[in-house]
Structures are given as structure tokens and as C-alpha cells.
Design brief:
Layout (H helix, E strand, L loop, with lengths): L1 H27 L4 H26 L4 H32 L6 H5 L3
Length: 108
């Protein structure tokens, strides 16, 4: 149950960023478009890994297989968050947005 909730929340978070937040950043800071494309690619890879994890949970995979899925997700997420913070934190602190946080980032 926790896995499904976490995976769904993370998917919605990334969809909100891709659909609302990243276009707003690109409009205000066009020089960051390559960074945003890289983050969107991460989102796609994370969604793929989460799909594999959900499938493994649904079929009651052995713990060592679940660990491998979780390690893959964790490694990519750690790199993703570090890159995102390095590249966007200053921009996010100054960006004025018309949409609310939940629309852009999903339910927090």
C-alpha cells in the first residue's frame, strides 16, 4: 500500500513539474531549457523504474528483487534531486507563478 501511494504521489509531482512548473521556468529563463529537458528525461526514467517496482510488488517478488528496484529508484532520485537543486533553487526562490503549489508539484 505504501509503495503504491508513494509511486502515485511521485508520478503526480513529476507530471505537475513537467506540465506547469517547467514551462513557467522556460518562459522566464530560456537558458535553462537544456536543464529542464534533462530533468524531464529523469522523470521519464523514474516513472519507468517505479512501474517496474509496482509490478514487482503486485506479484509479491522476493525481497532481494524489491531491494534492487528500490536501490535503482533511490540512486536516480538522489542524483535528480541534487541536480535539480543545484540548477533551479535560485530560480525557484525568485520565480513568480500564477498556479498554486499543488497544481505545479502535486499533493505535498
Amino acid at each position: 500500500m505504501y509503495c503504491h501511494g508513494f509511486c502515485a504521489a511521485l508520478d503526480r509531482h513529476h507530471q505537475g513539474e513537467d506540465r506547469t512548473l517547467f514551462p513557467a521556468i522556460a518562459a522566464a529563463h530560456p537558458q535553462l531549457r537544456p536543464v529542464l529537458r534533462s530533468l524531464e528525461q529523469d522523470h521519464s526514467m523514474i516513472a519507468h523504474l517505479l512501474g517496474g517496482l509496482r509490478e514487482a510488488v503486485d506479484r509479491a517478488a522476493p525481497p532481494d528483487e524489491l531491494d534492487r528496484h528500490l536501490e535503482g529508484v533511490a540512486a536516480l532520485m538522489e542524483n535528480h534531486f541534487r541536480y535539480e537543486e543545484r540548477q533551479l533553487l535560485t530560480v525557484l526562490e525568485t520565480l513568480e507563478l500564477a498556479a498554486g503549489a499543488e497544481e505545479m508539484l502535486g499533493p505535498l
